[in-house]
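ok so I'm stuck.
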Amino acid sequence: MIQAVLFDLDGTLANSLADLAAATNLALEKYGFPPQPVEAFKMFAGNGIPKMLERALPPQNRTPETVEKCRKVFMDYYGEHYADKTAAYDGVPALLGVLKARGIKLAVVTNKAQEMADKVVTKLYGDLFDLIIGKREGFPAKPDPAAAHLAMRTLGVTPQECLFVGDSGVDVKTGANSGAVPIGVLWGFRDRAELSENGAAYIIEKPSQILSILEELQ
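replied:
not stuck anymore, here's the structure
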């Protein structure tokens, strides 16, 4: 029986593309690099802030030193402007309310830095989530399952009692690697082919479809 649902953040719970792009482009332009179109961030995001910045830089400039300089500018700006345009996806708050009412435990497992994950989740969803696990020291990034397993231990559930919900191949791989049921969503940043190729057990178009999956698995 499913006891918990673990969610990715960007592209799954939060439509954050515009704010991620604005902060990144501010950093790029500060150091003389060309800005990137907002749509490009659908492919840049997903593996943490340093990797997103690296992908946004011109190939010849993707050095650790340049990424770190850009990261500092990004964080200074994004720390204040993380929710200028970021919003919950349609249907997600209602889904979370139903899950909470049914006694399902809720967690966020994201490659976003812990500080920013806390801010974004709290801004959009208040205290709906039992646990927020962002990128932190000592834990490798998704698709390594370490953070997902920490969430499961903290919530007191087994992998077989969890759904892992996300919009990218990284997320569905994380779900599979952790032993949870991996669910890919199509309202976020990536497409059906990527989700399917990376092992999604289910691919859904609307948040409410998670309730049907729960009923099927129960």
